[in-house]
Specification:
mainly alpha, 2 helices
Amino acid sequence: MSWVILLKTVLKLGSLLARIVQQKQLMDAGEAKALSRGLQDATDKMDKANKALRDLRGNKRLRLKLRRKFRASKD
């Protein structure tokens, strides 16, 4: 009788350990996916900022307008 109880306990512990490992793998996968999404968002924002700079450098009228608007005052 004690062998059956011992075997049952070992199987329960094995099952518990397998669930813990599976949960850890799922959490790691979710973390990697969130990190990837964050990096993609950052890249998109950098691309948008670079496009705005290229547009500004290519438009002389807009550059002149901005220079006049943000000209340093002579104090």
